Amino acid sequence: MRRILISIFLLLPLSLHAGNRIAELSKAPARSFTPSAIKPVTLSNGMKCYLLEDKVIPTIQGLLIVKGGGVYADIKRSALASVMMQLIKEGGTIDKSPEKVREFLDEHAIDITFSATQESFEGAFAGLSKETDNILGIFFEMLFDPAFDNDILTVVKKRVVDGLKREMEVSGPIAHRNFRELVYGAESPWGVIPKPSGVKKVSKNDVGSFYNEFFSPDRMILAVAGDFNKAELIKKLEAFANKYPKRELPALSMPKVTATDSPKEKFISKKFTQSAIDIGHLGSTRDNTDKYALVLMNDILGGSSSFSNRLMDAVRVKGGLAYEVWSAYTFGPDGAPGIFQMHAKTRNQTTEKAIETIISELQKLHENGAIKEELKRVKTGILNNLVFEYETPFNIASSTARFAYFGYPENYIEIYKKAIERTTLDDVNKVAKKYLHPDKLKVVIVGQKK
């Protein structure tokens, strides 16, 4: 079953449930929908906000996106971003100890999380609407006044190290990490593999210095949906804007990708009963006008979580070589393309046959293109999924915030929908010829040689 599904953002993974839903919806008649339009409100401290009222349930949800991300960290401390965000969640604030923060969240039934991706830092909150003042208060206090408690830092580092060690004994994560390193290069922040030794070196000073490079309100986008009055919520947010003004920070420079496109293979010997295989090469960037055709092409190959996609049909259904097989085509920022990746797990004895079958399907699509029925199926699945993916106000608000963060227009849902609808079979076959490179494949195998 596939791990990643190309979403409307052409970058961000959806849930496995959403991936399976696309496969189901590809068989249903095409549906239409009109998402709610949201105009941003910019606070006096520069924070941009997307607010959408929803009176159905007495709750409130929020998503905050901060410009930054893991790729900005020193590659020798590549897990620094993850450590920092966990410490914001657990390390207390200037005025509240870690224990006091936990007690406050429990007392008011508030859920708050913080996380890092390669291209962003994110925070999220949820709770009952009657707790709105408490939710916003503690969320912004944790965000802007973190204490980075040293004892909690020790706990977080141990947890991250233990997690990395566990991943080193699971074939899929080993393959994925080494595949990224092979594609981007071992010295690239886009491909570096976090190591326990690097995590252990992270100090409180490292965390504080890294935090100070990014966390200013004018580098943040906030999405909120729920049971509130918009005008009143803006007043509340503006009060926090006065408390937490913007800071003068140096401009950020996104690391570029300098990887070569020569074919390579890496075998990692592990005493597993199954081999994990990753095959592919560099993907493309979000400003590429061919991205819509590439999304459809990938779904035809192996990205739709459907037994009808080519990899599933050839490798699993007909070949009986793997239970799990999928493809993903991702898009990165200008100068840092994403990855095209095909993945499978198979018995050690059938590893070579599985690889041959996967590459054969890639070559067929590259050389001969897709057919009309395939394009119709994946188009219908993607378009119908838009109804499912944007059926809640919070999904609409948070998606609009993500569009803005990644430089898309605020009505990108409609733009995306129309672009998918007008993409032709000729468009798909042209990108299969142009962007699939059977002669430049990077291959990672984790397992035992037979």
- Give the strand order, joined by hyphens, for the main sheet: 1-2-6-3-5-4
**Top-tier CATH class of the largest domain:** Alpha Beta
User: Number of DSSP helices?
Assistant: 16
SS strand fraction: 15-25%
Whole-number tally of structural domains: 2
Report low-confidence residues grouped into runs of 5 or more.
1-22
CATH architecture field of the largest domain: 2-Layer Sandwich
CATH superfamily of the largest domain: Metalloenzyme, LuxS/M16 peptidase-like
Class by alpha and beta content? alpha+beta
Mean pLDDT reading: 91
The ordered H/E elements are: HEEEHHEEHHHHHEHEEEHHEEEHHHHHE
Shape: globular
Task: Tally the beta strands.
Answer: 13
Cα-to-Cα separation, first versus last residue: 25 Å
Q: Write the CATH fold name of the largest domain.
A: Cytochrome Bc1 Complex, Chain A, domain 1
Query: How much is the radius of gyration in Å?
Result: 23 Å
- As an assembly, this protein is single chain
The helix content, as a percent range, equals 40-55%
How does this model look, in words?
The chain has helices spanning 16-25, 80-90, 98-107, 132-144, 150-167, 171-184, 196-200, 204-212, 230-243, 291-303, 310-318, 351-368, 372-389, 393-405, 412-422, 425-435, and strands at 41-42, 48-53, 59-67, 111-116, 120-128, 220-226, 264-269, 274-282, 284-285, 322-329, 331-332, 339-347, 442-447. It has 450 residues and is α+β, with helices and mostly antiparallel strands. The protein folds into two domains: 16-34 and 256-447, Metalloenzyme, LuxS/M16 peptidase-like (Cytochrome Bc1 Complex, Chain A, domain 1), CATH 3.30.830.10; 41-243, Metalloenzyme, LuxS/M16 peptidase-like (Cytochrome Bc1 Complex, Chain A, domain 1, 2-Layer Sandwich), CATH 3.30.830. The strands form three sheets. Strands 1-2-6-3-5-4 form a six-stranded mixed beta sheet, sandwiched between helices. A hairpin with a 5-residue loop joins strand 1 (41-42) and strand 2. Helix 2 (80-90) crosses helix 5 (150-167), helix 2 crosses helix 8 (204-212) and helix 10 crosses helix 16 (425-435).
